[in-house]
Amino acid sequence: MKKKIELIRQLGLFDSAMIMMGIVIGSGIFVTTGIMAKTLPSAGLILLAWVVGGLLTLAGALTYAELGAAMPEAGGQYVYLREAYGPLPAFLFGWVLFLVYNTGGIAGLAAAFAEYLGWFFPFLSTKNVIFSTQLNLFGFHLSYKLTMAQAAAAVVIIFLSIVNYLGVGLGKTVQNILTVIKIAILFLIIVFGFAFGKGSAVDLSLNPGSLGFGQIIAGFAASLVAVAWAFDGWNNVTFVAGEIKNPGRNLPRALILGTVSVTVLYVLVNYIYLYALPVNEAAGVVRIAEKACNALFSGTYAALITGVVILSIFGSINGSILAGPRVFYAMAKDKLFFRKVAEVHPRYRTPGFAIVIQAVWAVILALSGTFTQLLTFCIFSAIMFWIAAAAAVFTLRKKRPDLHRPYKTPGYPVVPALFIVASVGILLNTLIESPVESLAGIGITLIGIPVYFIWSRKKSG
Asked: Which of 314, 428, 320 is nearest to 380 (CA)?
């Protein structure tokens, strides 16, 4: 009988932390603050929102750390949902992740990468159309155009998918280098900003504009939602738990170290932004990092900041491409996805076919230009799965009290409950602000139910 080839544990603590931080630090830190300042004109409250967002993310990390240490398998969150609630909720998580959330996220990041790269190479612009056509299908008139930016997005997805196909060692090396460089650059912006920047003292008073209480609450809530998405992806490191060495120790440490480090960086970078620009000047500015550096150092730093953003997004794409296929691999091992997806490449020891189909679908989404709408639809569903996975800590402590737990969530049950309550708040905000998109996301998720039963019949057949 041919010996089955499995994934091997080759990711250390540093590698795991770099995957987590590299996925999280994308473009959000370079654009979010100006948007926050528009609805929350208070430097003190903006900084507080980043601190609170970091603490809530830490609560989630501490919660997932218990689950990951107890069940250190490829697939992470998929495994937690399966063990707590059964195969159907786990499948629906993987369904949404593959259909839209991870693949659409990769496509969106690749599109942003191409857009910023177009600053240096204008021929990569979305206005540079390669091909366009008009289609008439069943009386519906559809138009399609392929731009150089879409082609560039597809190329970067294919390139990084090949990198990760060729081995975890290569993929993690690329991730480590990119993450270290972007952390170093953020650190230098902070240090040089404090040492040589020409700014003014940050007004830390919480309500300098004498806003009404309702305005403050609404603005702070909206800011917390923005901060939550700047931290998005922190849980993806659990997907590679099956390849982390000594996971009972290293996975919790990677989650905690990564979350604390990102929070400190985010708060300090935002302080520098607000040191460089008064809140009224920051309000509504999308390219806040660029404008802040121009003000701090009396020059034009568009090229430098654009280069940093490109590097940051590139690392985030690589981390997402590395982590996502492990969920599809876990689904296939449970016979809830194509059987070939459960195969490990005999030479490279990666879930090769899972990486290939993820790349194919992400490229299709990137070329179609529909990923933005699809991602908007599935945000609501993604938050629901966050909540369900965090609640699995409570479920599994009752359902499987004898499960070996080398790490337990400190402050249980308060810490996981805090994360769940905060996530429910974000969920309700999303439903109120985007009701149509939220319901569409629920619809996409529910479509997975008949698909699950099809796979289940194949599994038992």
From this structure: 428
Burial 261-282 (b: 16+ CB within 10 A, else e): bbbebbbbbbbbbbbbbbbebb
Could you tell me the sign of the dihedral formed by the alpha carbons of 325, 327, 331, 337, in that order?
Answer: negative
Q: In 208-322, at which residue ranges do the beta strands (DSSP E only) sit? A: none
The whole-angstrom separation of Cα 324 and Cα 316 is: 12
Cβ contact 427:383 at 8 Å: yes
Measured distance CA(341)–CA(185) in Å, rounded: 38
Task: Give residue 366's identity as a one-letter amino acid code.
Answer: A
Per-residue pLDDT of 79-134, as tens digits, reads 999 999 999 999 999 999 999 899 989 998 999 899 889 889 888 888 888 888 88
As a whole number, the mean pLDDT across the chain is: 91
Residues 6+ apart with CB under 8 A from 14: 176
CATH topology of domain 13-460: Amino acid/polyamine transporter I (1.20.1740)
pTM of the model as a whole: 0.93
- Quick: pLDDT tens for 281-291: 988 888 888 88
Report the alpha-carbon distance of residue 191 to residue 397 in Å, rounded.
45
What distance in Å separates the CA atoms of residue 94 and residue 459, rounded to the nearest whole number?
17
Q: Alpha-carbon distance 222 to 203, whole Å?
A: 21
Q: Please work out, in degrees rounded to the nearest 5, the angle formed at the alpha carbon of residue 69 by the alpha carbons of 68 and 70.
A: 90
Closest among 280, 300, 247, 226 to 30, alpha carbons compared: 226
d(CA 311, CA 304) in angstroms, rounded, equals 11
Q: How far apart are CA 180 and CA 348, in angstroms?
A: 25
